[in-house]
Amino acid sequence: MGSLLPPSGSLKVKRVAIIGAGPSGLAVAKYLLAENAFDKIDIYEQQAEVGGVWNYNANITDHIPVPQTAPSVTPNEPIWPPGAVAPLFPNPMYDRLITNIPKHLMQYSDQAFLPQSLLFPTREDVQDYLIKYSQDVRHLIIFSTQVEDISFSQENGQDRWSLTARSTIDSKVAKIPYDAIVVANGHYSVPFIPSVPGIQVFQAKYPSVISHSKNYRSPQSFRNQKVVVVGGGPSGLDIGNQISVVCQKPLLNSVRSEEPLKLGKENKEEVPPIAEYLIEEGGVRFEDGRVEKDIDAIVYCTGYLYACPFLRSLDPPIVTTGRRVIGLYKQLIHISHPTLAFTALSKKVIPFPVSEGQAAVIAKVWSNKLVLPEENIMNAWEKKQVEEIGDNTNFHVLGYPKDADYINELHDWAGCAEDGFTKEPPYWDEQQRHMRSMFMDIRKRFVELGGKATTMKELGPEFENFDR
């Protein structure tokens, strides 16, 4: 990926809107500001504080259809708790969440977590960390404002975007023109609950049994209940462990393959995927033929669909099935409209440093200091990815070592700019890559020692070098 000085004015980007003041939106704002090339940078945030998914709302839950397999849902309506000065929106954060990433890897390149933070920080520590990180861009944030629509047009051969936003406090509507848009609203809004034979009839008869992890807050409501948790990802593992302590033993964890990290195994039993819902029995049949009756709760920890309802007028659409975002180069920049960018779409990555690398590239491209490849080359890249990975959810899944390679690729790509780095994004050395490859072992040791360690050294001599 090289860089040439573009023809004068090839991209006329002076006014930028960022959708979302979560971790990736904040990072983009910092790198755009550092470039000192833009007249107007606005960040739209529907909540009253930064943080995105980390901005915890204790009693705000979402109405989730069962099943839910399509991304074409209406945006969440604001909810006004008694005495609130601004409305709240449901998100997937729960009470006793700690990260599954050690803080040495999770943090931004220019801000460390506090020394007293746990090695795997609590949700409270992450939210405080993000509030601190936001201090020098807070003046750009338009809080309690929901983006309803973004429409595209061209003017003298240049992309133009018209953004319609509504205040969630007084319902006033504003329509504002921009030259470029960053979609940084994450991918934790539209839960995915698969369609399984009998699930709709079961839901109609037992409307309180099936739920999704987006609405999980604490394990107390599952006390002494017969519980099935569906899914073996980080949320399925953590939520299952929490519920298994208080529910009827064993908790049944429905997974497609055996989970390598056996935390909480004494209270759980792995079972195959659910093949059928049994209405009369109030239960399910698993794929191996096993039947469980009289189930009190089934919690789907099955992830989310990609959705951008405010870009519904874009043709061709960027989201169809909800399994991926279509038409992007390097999972970042829209190929046909390079003034439209998406951050933090990737899964099984370390999101904060990834967002920094993406932000650095966006800032350089839009300030005309970094040239994108020809459109046919970018289309060929996406086509090859689809052929190799598939046109499905796996398209955005990286995992190690791909995520480490991507972080370093973004760093080097931004560094190809004709003026070099303005604000340099992270580059992972061998120690960071090694830590990334071992973080499941690190987390296992952390849990075995009681979940109280704040440094790698406390985990034992085999981990202490990671503190440096």
What this model shows, in words?
This protein is of the alpha/beta class and 468 residues long. Helices cover 24% and strands 18% of the residues. It is built from 9 helices and 20 strands. It has a 5-stranded parallel sheet with strand order 3-2-1-7-20, with helices on one face. Strands 9-16-10-11-12 form a 5-stranded parallel sheet, covered by helices on one side. The protein starts with 14 loop residues before the first strand and ends in a 20-residue tail after the last helix.
Q: Element order, helices and strands?
A: EHEHHEEEEEEHEEHEEEEEEEEEEHHHH
The termini sit apart by: 32 Å
| Shape estimate | globular
Radius of gyration: 23 Å
Computed structural class: alpha/beta
What is the count of β-strands?
Answer: 20
Q: If strands are numbered along the chain, what order do they take across the biggest sheet? A: 3-2-1-7-20
Average pLDDT for all residues: 94
Please, what is the oligomeric state?
single chain
Sketch the major β-sheet.
5 strands, parallel
- Tally of alpha and pi helices: 9
> Uncertain regions: pLDDT < 50 for 5+ in a row?
1-9
